[in-house]
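[Q] Does anyone have a clean structure-token version of this?
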Amino acid sequence: MSLLTQIFGSRNQRLLKQYQKTVREISALEPQIEKLSDAELQAKTPEFKDRIAKGESLDDLLPEAFAVCREAARRVLKMRHFDVQMIGGMVLHYGKIAEMGTGEGKTLMATLPTYLNALSGKGVHVITVNDYLAQRDAEWMGRLYSWLGLTTGVNLSQMDHDTKQSAYAADITYGTNNEFGFDYLRDNMVYEARERVQRSLNFAVVDEVDSILIDEARTPLIISGQAENHTDLYHKINEVPGMLTMQIGEETPDGKGVVEVPGDYTKDEKAHSVLLTEAGHENAEAILTKMGLLPEGASLYDAANITLIHHLYAALRAHALYHKDTHYVVQNDEVVIVDEFTGRLMTGRRWSDGLHQAVEAKEGVKIQNENQTLASITFQNYFRMYAKLSGMTGTADTEAYEFQEIYGLETVVIPPNRPSKRVDRQDQVYKSAQEKYGAMLVDIRDCYERGQPVLVGTTSIENSELLSGILTGANLEHNVLNAKQHAREAEIIAQAGRPKMITIATNMAGRGTDIVLGGNVEKQIQLIEENIALPESEKEAQSHKLRDEWQSLHDHVVNAGGLHIIGTERHESRRVDNQLRGRSARQGDPGSSRFYLSLDDALLRIFAGDRVRAVMDRLKMPEGEPIEAGIVSRSIESAQRKVEARNFDIRKQLLEYDDVANDQRKVIYTQRNELLETTDISELIGSLRVGVFQDVVRAHVPAESVEEQWDIPALEKTLAGEWNLDVPLQQMLANDQNVTDDDILEKVLAAADDSYNAKIAVVGKESFGGFERNVMLQSVDSHWREHLAALDHLRQGIHLRGYAQKNPKQEYKREAFELFGSMLDQIKNEVVRMVMTVRIQSRDEIDAAEAAIAAQQAHVENLNFQHADFNPNAAPEELLAPTAAPSAAPAEEGYMGVKVGRNDPCPCGSGKKFKACHGKLA
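[A] Here you go.
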């Protein structure tokens, strides 16, 4: 500690001192607020709202609002906020992260800033890790908010549109991070402003902030639609990894590494990647040629075979790196991803780049189609859009640098209400997993016999089931939680503090629920109090009896040493280990923890296994004897720091690339929202029209050029053929020798304006305005989707630019910018072409067209032609129908008459895809 820190205190200490002054202010208000009647206390909410409307800031209101919220919680929830919870509430209000240990009352603490910020009327989002916690907290704390006159909504997945809209319209909305993110993306895909559900993003309180903003930030949120089908190819390629062998050992430039067993591919567990060796390439090419997937003599790296190498690597990764019951489980003929940090099943999430399909082929389940990205955003960029963001967790300090670097959030460590009495014992390292499990069994049996409850934390479902089998064989009763049923698991974890209870849980199962020593009686007491049939005296007697029973169980567990935590292996993040330890010793209770490790554990095997094994061999340690030394624990912690740093780099890199797309996303979504909110976009269409026709004219008649450089016949042909405009420019030149290039441009623009105004005169400005808006929205959406796909492809190969001594990130930014500019031009051209070439059909023409379609119906099957907005009673009596220009090629009439998919063969018979032929944009 530096001398200055010793004199002035650390930044954390100075902040706590500052907040403690405000806590004293709040406590001074308590006596007068206690005297208020219920009605007077409830009247404070409208009074505060009125003061905010008159210009008073939320910061000025903070002491009073916190005091009111504390008193209301005491009356409604029978809970009074501790002083440390008041400090935590201030930390959240000022847009920082509050680190508070398990059992310190984070859920209650969050009511303070939530109440204060909801008074502004702009909405507050309280974000949790799963639907169960969102619903539980909304119901539990919603009683307090509604008593104070505020509304509470809960935003869950699979909710219908109207329920979602009313949940967001409430003063306070509870929900999960995924649902808030997906709603944002869905809101930017709607075609009517009234279909949007979210309001502007004002203030968010993120519960378990480390889990949401760090662990889940490595994968972006993606809404996708189906793309092309390669199902057969996945099945065929799935046979290849079985014919290839893994190389053991690898040559290194310093000569230390040697190839022990030659093979076709190498596996790098640290980087989580596989790579074909030289021999592997030749072998794979021979196998693929034999299977008929690769032409004789062709190379895997020929441009035509890029898809093949992509599929081959996906299959190799699926077989070598992704294991059943560790990385995924198979349920109902589907591959469901298991979250590596939480052990939870991530239903509906899929790995990208064809990896998920490769795993489906490996497991022999139905292969689902590959997806095309329709909209995507990273959690980093979604949460940075909130005007004010804050978070709370029991473990944030180890990641304080990342919170500050990426989100601009400062972490404040809040002292516990009562000092912790937990004893964290030294790790024990065994030679083999068998010895480790043997030692754990001895420890668990000892606790069981003494009546001490045990919580065993595992890193995977596979480990949970293995350990469960060992305990069953030893006749020890236990519960297994694999984060599959959140509500049931919360009930089990609440009772995990009863004597002789043994609970096995993956890292995060039942998180958000306190483990009370002696078990949780509050739930049973609540049920008694809600029973209308029981008289008050009976309720009181039963509650008193339950509390007495609980007290004797509680005392028994305290004397046995409190909750004992056993870790089956170290996680790659120190934070997750601390979360497990933190389940014990809440509110000054006693407790203990110990991690049991073996040299077969992934973390030790990758980072420190050889060194520790050499030490054990040198000391000739007998079987079953562990190493228990500070130096080993420290070397494991340094390995964890390395992994954390690598994971931070992965997240930072993901963010740096997504920042490029994010700037473009903001432009597109802002444009979209303006379109949705504007009824008349004729001015915008007018400016687009001027821009497009300037480009068309200047391509044939350059600015400030002489007549000899002009190509008037080609310009006339282009205007008539592509834009449905008949402009007699050659006649104009013959009549007047003094025509300049600007005169020609004016003449074309005037003709375009006349054509546009003629259409409006027929259908009316309002009808045509709606049509223009839909054309614009559809064009923006389809091109944005293709642009996202283009960015995905660009990103996959951009790292290769490094070999040309170019910075891949700079190259990506430059090319993404060029792609974006080109996309905006394509949108502009497509919208103007659609608006200029649309033909207004009269009622007679519509009737004739319908008769022709009816006649063709006998020859055409499985097609149903129907105008989406067709209404026979509509006025005016004309409708809009996009058609090709009169002089367009027959293929374009086919395009306008029958909908042709962008990847379907072009109707002109060229053999090309439609998007590469007549569907190509100018």
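[Q] Thanks! Anything notable?
[A] The first strand starts at residue 97 and ends at 99.
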